[in-house]
Amino acid sequence: MSEVESVGACLNCGTALTGPYCSACGQKAQVYRSLGTFLHDMIAGLFNFEGKIWRTLPMLAWKPGEMTRRYVEGERARFVSPVALYLFSVFLMFAVLNFSGSMDASGGLEEMAADERADIARLETERATAAARRTDVAAIDLRIAGKKEDLAELGRLQRGNIVTLDGSENDQAPAWVREAVAKIQANPQAFIAKVQDAASKFSWLLIPLSVPFLWLLFAFERRYHLFDHTVFVTYSLSFMMILVIAGGLLVSLGLSSIASMLFFLPPIHMYRQLRGAYQLGRANALFRTLLLLMFAFVTSILFLLAMLAIGIF
Questions:
Q1: Whole-model pTM?
Q2: HEC string for 266-311
């Protein structure tokens, strides 16, 4: 390891040194030129693992409201900033989803089709057994017909027929709609890739889309500022990204049933964060959580529509 020593003055700002750290800028008196130092600085710059992350993540999971309130009230150096945590969570989420194959739409459709074919084979075996026993098979026939219809729909999606127009003279679809549909059908995989790429690049849009809805929950309470709502939203979204990361890892390990249980955590987390951050009573926090869930659904739809538009146009 190559060491660079400062002789009486800070190498960063030139201030006279009185100890192991510069009193003006805080840089160490001794610095090192090594790959390990570079990696340490990169991690510290993103996440500041030197204590902050181990205080932030447990509180984000268990006491999100208290952490949000403490950050808003001035305890900034104690926790990872909401922006840094959000950006890192987004980066890690897309990395994990790509690694686990969860973003491979074609693979997902093929897996679903295989499940449908397996269900059809099982139902046909049940039907044969029931018919041999001279039992009514009408209900089984209906289930088989439904499964075959689902399988045919999956086949259309795999072939790129995501959206269809009948092409008749009575079809009043605007020209831009026809053009968009033609683009999707011509190369559905490219369209899906564009949407995924747009989602990764414009994930920050979730914050400005969400903040106005949270503001509406407290529009008549002047003690809260947009800064407070933005911190709340950013920390909340970071937790949701971490849940997606956990779900992707569980799916890659073949634990899909456990991953599906994570679906029930967001409402609980929203309730706890609302109650702690805004010092609400139980009934008040529950009511606002229900409203926030509806707002979150609307925000998700708006974000999805924006990404689809970018993917098409």
A1: 0.69
A2: HHHHHHHHHHHHCCCCHHHHHHHHHHHHHHHHHHHHHHHHHHHHHH
